[in-house]
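This section describes the prediction task in plain terms. A model, or a person checking by hand, is given the sequence of a single protein chain and must write out its three-dimensional structure as a string of tokens. No templates, partner chains or ligands are provided. The sample shown here is typical of the held-out split.
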Amino acid sequence: VSQSRYLIEKFISTTQGLQTPINVSFVYPYQELCTSHGCKAIKNNIQYYSDTHHLTKEGALLIMPNLKKNY
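The expected answer:
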């Protein structure tokens, strides 16, 4: 497992174990954008990130179905 994948998995496991107020939740775009081989920044000439940590509109739309399902 790469170091970045390890850090992503550590972040997810840590935040899922936190007790948070009812109006606080964490979003994990990695589940839609990443595989064990890496994360998609661009696919079919569609850019999913505007920089290292921020999704473009297209990236946000890609993860939107997962958000609606969970929230």
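For orientation: The chain has a mean pLDDT of 83.
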